[in-house]
Specification:
It holds the Pfam family Methyltransf_16. This protein is an alpha/beta fold. The chain is 38% helix and 19% strand. Helix 5 (110-121) packs parallel to helix 6 (140-148), helix 8 (188-195) packs parallel to helix 9 (216-222) and helix 10 (236-251) runs parallel beside helix 11 (270-282).
Length: 313
């Protein structure tokens, strides 16, 4: 397999490449176009083709993609409206690039749509409860749940500063005012203080949460009844950090019942997804597949292979 190129982190390559080792790119005409007229649309076309094949990308692809990403304007955003079954809508400012600002978190991915649809079909699971979302990105799933499922508190979380800033703007765009965009998880006493305040319903919190460094005490302060996540299982390098964080959630509940956990994943690389399941088994975390829904609320360019797992921590 080609070595990852400077400027394009391996975890971002893995989000849309399911690479298996072959020697060359099987589309000479695209390779020639890449050499003579590189642009984002062409590179995206190549990446989409790679998703469905066993081909290994050329080194030149990584180099050109990194150059294009560096040259893109910071203002390459668009506004999208997602219509909910209630007639309400979720309005989002999203990136027009797959990778922007060094992250893939500035646009809505397919698993977020599927998880939101499942939540809207099961509103009683969220009604009156505290929901913690891991890797919220720019906020689609959480905003849809806040608008349709009546949670008591919804905690959006991510670790990338630019994603957190865009998330905060999207919450404001949808009429949701966070308790405060924080630089770290609140302390337990602060969390209890907020719990007793008379706030809007639902109460919305934005928190910076790093899976590798968050403590059990900080997780306990969040008092989550339900934990959800979408499209966070795409890189073997972060799977152990995710599972470690879930284990902290399990041991940090004190006298509280363990939260219910639901994770939606787009199956891009079956090996990565099977690794996630194997690591869950190794950690003693039981899981089951949530049956797929038949109806479709949102439009997709292509119907993705998305699975929702319920975890028992």
């Amino acid at each position: 397999m080609a070595e990852p190129r400077p400027g394009l982190p391996l975890r971002f390559q893995r989000r849309f490449l399911a690479a298996r080792p072959l020697r060359s790119l099987p589309w000479p005409e695209l390779e020639q176009s890449l050499r003579t007229a590189p642009d984002s649309a062409l590179l995206a076309d190549i990446l989409h083709k790679l998703e469905s094949t066993a081909a290994e990308p050329l080194d030149e692809l990584y180099e050109t993609l990194a150059d294009v990403l560096k040259e893109e304007e910071e203002s390459t955003h668009c506004y999208k409206n997602y219509l909910l079954p209630s007639g309400d809508c979720v309005s989002l400012c999203e990136s027009t690039a797959l990778i922007s600002g060094g992250t893939t978190g500035l646009l809505t991915w397919e698993a977020a749509l599927h998880l939101a649809q499942w939540a809207l079909q099961n509103p009683s699971l969220f009604r009156g409860r505290t929901v913690l979302e891991l890797g919220s990105g720019i906020g689609f799933t959480g905003i849809a749940i806040c608008k349709s499922c009546q949670p008591r508190t919804f905690i959006f979380s991510d670790c990338h500063p630019r994603v957190l800033r865009q998330l905060g703007e999207n919450l404001q765009l949808n009429g949701l005012t966070p308790e405060g965009v924080t630089c770290s998880i609140q302390t337990e006493s602060q969390g209890q203080e907020l719990e007793g305040q008379n706030c809007q319903t639902p109460k919305v919190v934005v928190a910076e949460l790093d899976w590798g460094s968050v403590t059990e005490k900080q997780l306990l302060a969040l008092r989550a009844d339900i934990v959800i996540a979408a499209d966070v299982v795409y890189d073997p390098e972060i799977i152990l950090a995710l599972i470690g964080m879930l284990q902290k959630l399990s041991t940090s509940r004190a006298d509280r019942k363990a939260p219910e956990v639901f994770i939606a994943s787009t199956i891009r690389n079956p090996d990565t997804y099977q690794l996630f399941q194997a690591e869950l088994d190794k950690a003693g975390i039981r899981w089951q597949v949530i049956p797929a829904h038949s109806s479709c609320y949102f439009l997709y360019d292509e119907q993705p292979d998305v699975t929702i797992l319920q975890l028992f921590i």
